[in-house]
Amino acid sequence: SYDDESCGKRQRLLVVANRLPVSAKRTGENSWSLEMSPGGLVSGLLGVATEFETKWVGWPGVDVYDVVEEKALSESLAEIKCIPVFFGEVFDQYYNGYCNGILWPILHHLGLPQEDHNDTNKTFQTQYDAYKKANRKFRDVIIENYEEGDLVWIHDYHLMFLPQYLKEYNKNIKVGWFLHSPFPSSEVFKTLPSRSELLRSLLTADLLGFHTYDFASHFVSTCTRILGVEGTPEGIVDHGKVTRVAVFPIGIDPNRFIKACELPEVRQQMTELKERFAGKKVILGVDRLDMIKGIPQKFLGFEKFLEENMDWRDKVVLVQIAVPTRNSVPEYRKVKDQVHGLVGRINGRFGSVSSLPIHHLDCSVDFNFLCALYAIADVMLVTSLRDGMNLVSYEFIACQEAKKGVLVLSEFAGAAQSLGAGAILVNPWDVTEVSSAIKEALNMPAEEREKRHRVNFQYVKTHSAKKWGNDFMSELHDTFSESDMKIKK
Ligand code: ADQ
């Protein structure tokens, strides 16, 4: 228990992420509707929220510039324990610029952007400054709301300067930071001009968490190579200060998906989908439309499969749901065009008036329909070029208790380390391998599918988002007690 027995109060926790778990939408003058955005992060933290007196700090999805409006929105958010951070004019350079244009590609081994050679230094500097400014805005809001003894759990690459800023304000604030994306090899991270400052800031935290052992060890070797600090089994040691580095694989709330598959509405949708695709096997893809998800590679693998397996041509369909994101970043617009081009080519080559091999939708689908799709799919195809974890794989498995379909999973997704035993692992860059994996999955005997599904279903059930949140918090809490003792000594 995290209760403070001396005064009978629950331990306070500030969960800090770029986005709040709710999105605000204007409904009238000074009135707002607040919509919860579900997902692994949110469900994991809701589990933690019951153990701690939790407050959330982050951007509510809108910026307001009027004091009265800001007050009204802050008051509505306060009722659900959310504290807003408004970015104002730095948003574009911070979010689209440094976070998603520079850090995101580096963290996923895609390198720094190549364009605008004449302007790169200026752009980089402006975006870097905006990133620091945005991190300082978070610091200010946290300081305003901090009470002595609070734990602070920071999420993701948007807030890499926040540990340092908080520790500069008060070195006794206990700070944990978790990275949802992969951490790259040191050779890639080294190319980032601001590499040392970012690493130094992270090392001021008490606990740093990663999804997999590989990402954690990349981080440790990056720090030892760039900063010359020492890597030990406990973490990183620098001038006697220990920063704990540990592995916490995230999961989902499996029961939410299992229960949804039993709802009459979802069952009805499943029946309709089965009728729609009668006589065909369904391969499913569900991704944000992002370079890292390897959607073009998925289509190339499927094209190769259709080329080489004439007998399957009118017996299989690939349904790809690709929700567009980060449209203001040029690279994202490029990948969207590339994906559309491939859909046109493959449907043109292998389609007929009555049937198309690829059904591609640029949209988000609602939760119940998503569960119905997961439940009726024969094969789930995940071809991320790199991915922190990939929760879509977990969601598919949770919905497959009846069907026991096959997961084809990129070896470059964090999930390959946890679901590798039951999935067919592929290198998404190797079209021949993807094509063979599709064939193997479609032809897999029921007994083998059942065996593989059992292993993965058991894993998804036991390694939930709730467990992830509790494991991280318990470690942060213990780190807290230890350093507390050091101070007392
Ligand atoms: P994401 O890159 O967003 O997350 P992922 O883990 O697969 O990737 O989660 C995506 C979520 O969005 C899933 O819950 C999925 O259901 C939903 N989703 C995706 N496309 C959708 C669509 N078209 N319609 C409706 N819902 C859709 C980042 C990292 C991941 C890491 C998570 C959590 O990039 O590697 O697993 O954070 O740490």
Number of strands: 19
Percentage beta strand: 15-25%
Outline, from the CA principal axes? globular
Average pLDDT figure: 92
What does this structure look like?
- By secondary structure, this protein is α/β, with parallel strands linked by helices.
- It contains 18 helices and 19 strands.
- It has helices at 40-51, 67-79, 91-107, 120-145, 162-169, 186-189, 195-202, 213-227, 254-260, 264-276, 295-308, 330-350, 367-376, 391-398, 415-419, 431-443, 446-462, 465-488, and strands spanning 3-4, 9-10, 12-19, 22-28, 31-36, 53-59, 82-84, 151-155, 174-178, 207-210, 230-232, 235-238, 241-247, 281-289, 316-324, 358-361, 379-382, 406-410, 424-426.
- The strands form 4 sheets. It has a 9-stranded mixed β-sheet, with helices on both faces. The protein has a 6-stranded parallel β-sheet with strand order 16-15-14-17-18-19, sandwiched between helices.
- A hairpin with a 2-residue loop joins strand 4 and strand 5.
- The longest helix has 26 residues, at 120-145.
- It is globular and about 65 Å long.
- The chain starts with a strand and ends with a helix.
- Residues 485-489 have low confidence and may be disordered.
- The structure holds adenosine-5'-diphosphate-glucose.
- Residues 39-41, 180-181, 250, 286-288, 321, 323, 364-365, 370, 387-392, 395 line the site of adenosine-5'-diphosphate-glucose (ADQ).
